[in-house]
Amino acid sequence: MPRTSHPRARWGGARAALSPLALAAAVAAAASTGAAARTPTGFADLAERLLPAVVNISTTQTAAPQQLPDGDPPAPGGPPSDSPFEDFFREFFERQRPRAPTQPRTSSLGSGFVVDPAGMIVTNNHVVAKADEITVTFSDDSKLSATVVGRDAKTDLALLQVEPDRKLTAVSFGDSDRTRIGDWVIAIGNPFGLGGSVTAGIVSARGRDIRAGPYDDFIQTDASINKGNSGGPMFNLRGEVIGVNTAIFSPTGANVGIGFAIPSNLARPIVAQLREHGRARRGWLGVRIQTVTDEIAQGLGLDEAGGALVAGVSDGSPAAEAGILVGDVILRFDGRQIDEMRRLPRLVADESVGKTVRVVLWRKGTRKTVRVVLGEFPEDEALLAARSPAAPAETSETSETVVLGLKLATVTPELRERFDLEEEDGGVVVTEVVPGSPGAEKRIMPGDIVARIGSDQAAVTSPEQVRTAIEEAKKKRAKHVLVLLQRGGDRRFAAVRLPEG
Q: How much is the pTM?
């Protein structure tokens, strides 16, 4: 009977012949060979293909001229004003008089990449935000003037247009959601004005919030990114743009191995909107939200912390029209789970204006689904402020009470003046806070207004309502009571500890 050549048979024979130590070494060698096969031996071919699509961007800005004072006194030794030689000397002294300096020009450097062979270039907004003139330099050292098609400060993206006499080499966006921590990436840009430079590294982290804007979701990399790399592309090994290099973390200003890029899945729709409208048109829900902590979840009867707690609903907003209320927790948006609060703004902003979405809420212990027709985010801050919700109207009641270490009183003209409250501020105001009390633990301060309280988030109009809500929470053996506080134009929820007994 002939010998079988089945791989399992060969492996079985080898396993029988090898000692345990030799077998372990063989397995390790096989794993090492597999890992090496997946590791690039170099980036030369990829860099050669991508470099022509990456550009250097230089900008100039005209600074305001310095004004010299009028009516300079006569130069020392000059003729008196009534001298017969005044006309003779005037021209000489005018030549000696300091002249107003010419307007100085400042310059900055950045990077960008071509996304359309017809001349569309993506970069960072901060690279071109204050520019009077923009010059784009290509890998062959040719230069073209550029104009701004559109800018978006919130995501720090800008789209430029040049007028080439040929088709340009362009690159395309990839799917940044498929990028994993540990994936190889390369960055190409214009560090320190040195021209096209290529660096390589890995994805160090995803979803970084560096407090740069409301839609922070950065990819972190250890590929060297320095001053001048801003606006340049981060590529995967398929040559797709998965990020726009934007910022570095550095105590010295130079690279220390922590750079950040805007994910392509955030950049792509913004770039498309800039091209079509000259600005970003974001979906708008019209809510102010905060994180659901474990304490807040317990106060609301949620099994676990998650979602986005609605701390305010703008008047006339899509959320108000759909019936979303202060105290609701948004659990799902358009079929997607809201695991943490900061995911919601990005999901809303990514949606198109006018789209109808389903929003799943947690309200008073039960789930509720509403349909919301998204509006367009009002970029005008004055308009946004005008749509902010008003505080409860002032009541004539003047009672006081002390609960949770907070001395509460209805708003009176005297208290309004004492705490510098706005005319529309009414309801119950904190006048004193006992140090070390449950209220002090949550950084509640004199002048804060208690707007709502309890798991049902009933509006508060008197201090006695606060006491009643606290007693009800104790009867339910709750450990915390949820309080909606207002300070100036800001609102926030606090889960205040209930004392035992």
A: 0.62
